[in-house]
Amino acid sequence: MVDLTSRAQNWALAEQGSIPHLKVILIKWPTREHEAQRLWKILFKFLDKELIPDIEEYEQDLGDSRINVERALIALDGLVDATDHLPLFVGPHGPTPTCNIIVEHTDGLISWMKSVFRHYAPKTDQKDHYRTIIEKFSKILLLISRTRNILEAMDGGSPIQLAMLKSYSMLDLILTMWAAINPETQVFFPPYSIDRRTTSYLLELFEFYIFSDKSRALLFEEMDAWPKSTTDAFATSCIYRLQQLHQGFSDTNVEVKAACPGTFTLLAPTLLILAANKRMRRRFIRCRYLYYCAMCLYLCLHPTSEPVSPKNEDHLRMAQGLVEHLMGNPDIIVLGTRQLIEGRVVTMLAEGLSYPAWELETVYQTMMKLLAQSAFQGVAFKFYQLFEADPLPTPVREGHDAQVKGFKDDFVRTGMIMFTVADQTRDEASLCDNLEHREYMPNQIRTRPQTPSRYCSGCHSVLYCSRTCQKVDWKARHRDECTRARRKWRENAADRIVFRPLTRKMLQTIAVFYVDVLFREGRTAVDTGSYVFAIDFRAVPPGKQYIPFDEFLARPEFSLATSNTPRKSKRKSTREVGRPTKDKKAEEWYAQRVRTLIESSRDTGDRSVFADITTTYGLHEVRTFAKLVRKSEEWDSSYIVGNSVVRRHVYPPSPPLTPMQELQAQLDLAQHLIDRGK
């Protein structure tokens, strides 16, 4: 039995290493500062780095290895209790000696924590025990971080002491706990093994590292050296923490609801910074982290009966930041946009239009950037589901009601048109993306359309029915489009107007859709005539940064022209319909362009073909992408051109087009279709 009456004896025997007497002292943490400092010294004495036994000695129970580990575990438990006594660390004249005690022994403490976590934890009920260990260690490390902040604020710590608190060992331990991998089995913990309280401790620790350039560089360096399995486990762990926050909003506990938004505002920026690492970004997007970020934001704001208030401003700005983050990573655009739409980012942005402190145009442009992705089929269908199941709210902004409503209506209409375009080809799987496909298509493809197509091995974005078609398309255009080949041919590609493969496929889809509309509606149609749908991308003349719209005679990104071509007429002249300018030079170029398109398709036996030509207008190059359909037996040389162009000044892109410029061109094209349909 331990003599509880002799306090002095308990302290003396505890200092000598008596485990029972140490437990007695730790029953209640001392309130007097001199006793607290004495207890700190005793605990850190048992956490000396030199006392860590070799794992083989521990398993064979050699020497004092078992006793040293048992003392260390008790000392670590004592430090957890000490985290509730933070006021002891700051006195009226600055940090107390306790701060310096903690800093001086940080290295040994972290070494012991790593050893316990990896080797000496009890083997029974590992799931719950490791969860407890993570929670305890997180609290201790958070204590160290707060001590560091105190020293910095009070100028009480030397550079060496502060550097020790941000050591590589501490970073390694935090990463190990964050990923929640059982160090013995190397198996990732199930999500229910970490509670929300532990998550908040780890989040604060991550904030301590992630917002410092130096420590963030160490973090990414460590991640790059990880094997794939560790990277996957780490990414999955991050997403599980988002899921826990998501689930917390459905909890009836008011305190949980109040805590989750604050925790989320720390977790979301942390994940966005981590996603700057290319390897982590690939793993994160597969785990739907954008969706959970968006949903947590949405649930922070809903349900609410209050109008958008300043306290929500950060959440709305974060929604805008998610979209901007997506735009900076073209390789995840399609999948990422779908996740943001599912997470109701569109709804949050629409509500942001009503917030008085926001610039209306900025929020609207962010919405338009998101909408530009809807040219892709999967994204367009998500937009359609969103508008059908959950109509966008009509924001009210004092003095700007009509403008906001107009923005919202344009957004919805454009989204529906993009969906309609994608819907036209949903059931028509692509067999070959070579524009001259039918000319080179092998006989077995004609007789057996189910023959498997082959992907480009470089970018995996385009399909070909045969190697012949692939060779033809490679020489004609895909060598400049292919993301892998473009690195080798970058200098040559810079001299031409280059699309990304997905942009070209989107243009093909819109061209097919628009020509089908012309046939169906019979607009300006002659039964024996032919139709041309053309999109022009124009390069910037050398030495010019900005060119007014009128000098281009059409939008620099594209001009939209629909041509109805009747049978050959006895008249040699050309009748121009709806021409926006009387510039003779421009009319000659328009006429020559259509002739070139028809001539390029004259030798084909098909009545529906794509054409891709390059011409010169003035000082700049024009790449025309067109869909031609004829009803007569042969192509006609005379034609009637109808063109609808909106006059305004714009900034033309420099070749090759950047992803954002291509997206803007897609959006302008959709808006042009809206204008024509009014």
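Next protein, fold it too.
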Amino acid sequence: MEMFSSLVENVQNISENMLSGINIIQPKEEQKIASLVSNFYRQISTREDIQNLLTKYQLQLFQIKEVNSETIRQANICSTRMGRVQQTLSEYSEQMDKLEKLFKNNYLNDWNYKLIKIGKK
């Protein structure tokens, strides 16, 4: 536990130095940190419960990556289909506008006149 607290302390010191823009790590400190990290990993690798936990999280990360890839693929398919739908609806809208203009200008007045004439009879 002492080694872990020492490692945390060293990491905090390094992060404080990096944040202040001053890097004052000496070669001896780098070697000390490297040895602490390697000892920490060595101790972790001998504990089965920690290994099981790391394996569990690694598997969950792989699953998240797979789901993410599938989600991106589905989103691309959806985007493509929505683009097609938008294009089709735009074409239909243009056709309806043309039909409306055609009937409005040529036939509606004539139909209205005929309906009024029929109503008077």
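About the second fold: Residues 2-93 form one domain.
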